[in-house]
């Protein structure tokens, strides 16, 4: 069967997993203005922005012949929980015959999780499944290590755009890997590529580090968040995201009692501000702001899709945290209407604010 | 020879040019309407400035700001191209050193800037809505048949209070019409409108922020005494309107240019007043490289491409 998935972040990872299991993968195109236009046209007006973009993505994938879409569900009172139902109807109305396999946390509904696994498993042996999962997890971890270096290097590159190009090359390299040995080779090649990038020297005390927090889709998918990481990098800031795939996988794959991942710690840090689970990534958002301030970051960019309920809650708590911990936070709401020029002005002014804070003057 | 710095603020409604000396004293300033022609208004402004320039003057640096900062910065050869938030804050901190809160209302945007110890610590800018900016007042003044210059003073003549819905420009307008039909006078309606605008502004931008005095009110709308009075009523404190309230952005960018030149001891990239005579042509085309179909802006000077931007991937921007 021809399988596809929502486009988010380093998509070669999902592609690799499905390929290893012997499925024919339909790679959805990277979200573009065309994708957004499609999504906005066929989605409910008041749905959140990620739903609209993903609608567009699915339609593009369906046009390319996708028969099954593998996606994750939401948890808590967040609209991500009904994405699949809405998308299913939209695709049906458009006349596409597409099936969905939705993975929710296996600790909530193991039966469904198992049934989903069986569908994807096909004729593969359990050994093969375990092997593939481990290999892909290894790949995600390696990619995340390289990406974190990319996010750091970009601020200091001499030739603008060089690091981003290298990062694209690295992903192509990983995409071709099909064994453990290949992966290591791709990783080594990636390191070489990054080492070749010429940078200017900077004193440790002059480094500016900015964290990006918020809803996972707008944080991870650069094509719809104005390439926030590149933008900040070009303005001279090192960037770290609140979400990395490897951390997400580790957190979601382990049962509560033995879960010692980074994310558990983050959630604890956010607890004084949002004690209960309100869905989406609101708790992570506030937790990460606390974490970044403790780690001495200079500022935080908070991205939220327009109309995202959990992030609206965190947005209203942000000023309090920002004041209590003395860390500047800029909230940007993102949707199809967002004027880039306007947001750019804000990000530039935010960078001036951070630099000014360092130098004790305005800019 | 005397050294001067030029600051240019190209906004949606007005184009402002200032000339300052090494002590940041303003020697010349001009506030003109952009009328949708940023290039022409800057060219005209530069020519007027040249005429007013002392014979022994030397331009040591240029800064540009405002929504047209990139285009104009390329045209004149600006040393510093800065966003308007930083530019405004710089100017205000220079004129009112202990300022804590800046209210800035321009033609199509409005901002609150919170300053502590001469540093910007927080800011907010209006997002998707232009209710509560100069253009809206302009439009309403026209509808009521009152020149915008007299608009504010009329608000002070009101005898009664009337509450106008201020959330949205369109609804504010229908509410105004209704209130006119109820028999409220023009000046009362204007007062109600000023208060609605301020209420909307504080609710939208001041949300969750601690706004402390001294308050400084600037931008084109600060000329409107009605709005100033409404601000003072809303926050219950005196609001300072600086002398150069309508050219603060330009002043700030001139100061930033001066600081940049002196700190880096570099020489200016200013193309000279002759730029006003150069053929300078911006154009836009749709890039067909991918499905993003970015609108790329290309700027040509004497049919040589000098700048490009607007592409998401950097294909054109980095091609120069």
From TrEMBL, chain A:
It comes from Alkaliphilus peptidifermentans DSM 18978. Keywords: Kinase, Transferase. Gene3D superfamilies: 3.40.50.11900. This is Predicted nucleotide-binding protein, sugar kinase/HSP70/actin superfamily. One of its GO terms (molecular function) is kinase activity. The keyword Transferase applies.
From TrEMBL, chain B:
InterPro entries: ATPase_BadF (IPR002731), ATPase_NBD (IPR043129), CoA_E_activase_dom (IPR008275), Dehydratase_Activator_Redct (IPR051805). One of its GO terms (molecular function) is iron-sulfur cluster binding. Residues 6-257 form the ATPase BadF/BadG/BcrA/BcrD type domain. Pfam families: BcrAD_BadFG. The keyword Glycoprotein does not apply. Signal peptide: none annotated. The keyword Iron applies. Its cofactor is [4Fe-4S] cluster. Keywords: Iron, Iron-sulfur, Metal-binding. It comes from the Bacteria. This is CoA-substrate-specific enzyme activase, putative.
């Amino acid at each position: 069967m021809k399988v596809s998935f929502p486009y988010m972040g380093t998509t070669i990872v999902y592609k690799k997993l499905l390929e290893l299991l012997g499925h024919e993968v339909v790679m959805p195109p990277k979200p573009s203005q065309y994708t957004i236009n499609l999504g906005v046209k066929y989605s409910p007006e008041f749905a959140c922005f990620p739903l609209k973009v993903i609608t567009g993505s699915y339609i593009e994938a369906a046009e390319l012949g996708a028969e099954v879409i593998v996606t994750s569900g939401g948890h808590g009172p967040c609209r991500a929980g009904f994405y699949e139902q809405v998308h299913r109807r939209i695709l049906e109305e458009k006349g596409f015959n597409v099936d969905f396999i939705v993975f929710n946390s296996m600790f909530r509904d193991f039966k469904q999780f198992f049934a989903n696994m069986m569908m994807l498993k096909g004729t593969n042996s359990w050994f093969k499944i375990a092997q593939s999962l481990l290999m892909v997890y290894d790949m995600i971890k390696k990619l995340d290590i390289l990406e974190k270096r990319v996010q750091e290097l970009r601020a200091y590159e001499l030739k603008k755009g060089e690091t981003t190009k290298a990062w694209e090359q690295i992903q192509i390299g990983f995409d071709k890997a099909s064994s453990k040995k290949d992966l290591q080779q791709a990783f080594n090649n990636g390191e070489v590529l990054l080492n070749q990038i010429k940078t200017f020297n900077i004193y440790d005390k002059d480094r500016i580090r900015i964290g990006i927090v918020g809803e996972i889709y707008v944080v991870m998918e650069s094509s719809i968040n104005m390439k926030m990481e590149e933008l900040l990098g070009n303005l001279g800031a090192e960037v770290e995201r609140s979400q990395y795939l490897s951390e997400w996988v580790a957190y979601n794959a382990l049962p509560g009692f033995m879960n010692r991942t980074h994310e558990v710690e983050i959630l604890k840090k956010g607890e004084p501000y949002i004690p209960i689970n309100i869905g989406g990534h609101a708790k992570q958002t506030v937790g990460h702001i606390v974490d970044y301030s403790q780690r001495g970051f200079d500022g935080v960019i908070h991205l939220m899709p327009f109309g995202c309920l959990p992030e609206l809650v965190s947005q209203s708590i942000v000023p309090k945290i920002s004041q209590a911990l003395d860390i500047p936070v800029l909230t940007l709401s993102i949707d199809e209407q967002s004027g880039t020029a306007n947001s750019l002005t804000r990000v530039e002014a935010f960078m001036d604010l951070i630099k000014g804070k360092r130098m004790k003057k305005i800019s | 020879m005397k050294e001067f710095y030029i600051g240019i603020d190209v906004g949606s409604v007005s184009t402002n040019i200032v000339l300052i000396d090494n002590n940041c004293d303003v020697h010349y300033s001009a506030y003109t309407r952009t009328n949708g022609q940023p290039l022409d208004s800057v060219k005209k402004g530069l020519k007027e400035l040249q005429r007013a320039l002392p014979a022994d003057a030397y331009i040591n640096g240029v800064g540009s700001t405002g929504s047209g900062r990139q285009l104009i910065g390329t045209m004149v050869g600006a040393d510093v191209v800065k966003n308007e938030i930083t530019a405004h804050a710089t100017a205000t901190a220079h004129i009112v050193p202990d300022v804590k809160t800046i209210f800035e209302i321009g033609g199509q945007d409005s901002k609150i800037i919170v300053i502590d110890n001469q540093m910007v610590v927080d800011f907010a800018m209006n997002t998707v809505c232009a209710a509560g900016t100069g253009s809206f007042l302009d439009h309403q003044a026209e509808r009521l048949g009152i020149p915008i210059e007299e608009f504010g003073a009329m608000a002070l003549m009101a005898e009664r209070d009337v509450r106008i819905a201020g959330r949205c420009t369109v609804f504010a307008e229908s509410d105004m019409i209704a209130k006119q039909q109820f028999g409220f006078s023009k000046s009362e309606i204007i007062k109600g409108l000023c208060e609605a605008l301020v209420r909307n502004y504080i609710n939208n931008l001041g949300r969750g922020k601690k706004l402390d005095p001294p308050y400084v009110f600037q931008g084109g709308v600060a000329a409107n005494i009605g709005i100033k009075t409404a601000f003072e009523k809303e926050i219950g404190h005196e609001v300072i309107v600086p002398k150069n309230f309508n050219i603060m952005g330009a002043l700030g960018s001139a100061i930033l240019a001066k600081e940049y030149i002196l700190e880096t001891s570099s020489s200016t990239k200013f193309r000279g007043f002759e730029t006003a005579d150069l053929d300078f042509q911006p154009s836009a085309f749709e890039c067909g490289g991918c499905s993003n179909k970015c609108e790329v802006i290309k700027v040509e000077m004497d049919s040589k491409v000098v700048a490009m931007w607007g592409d998401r991937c950097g294909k054109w921007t980095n091609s120069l």
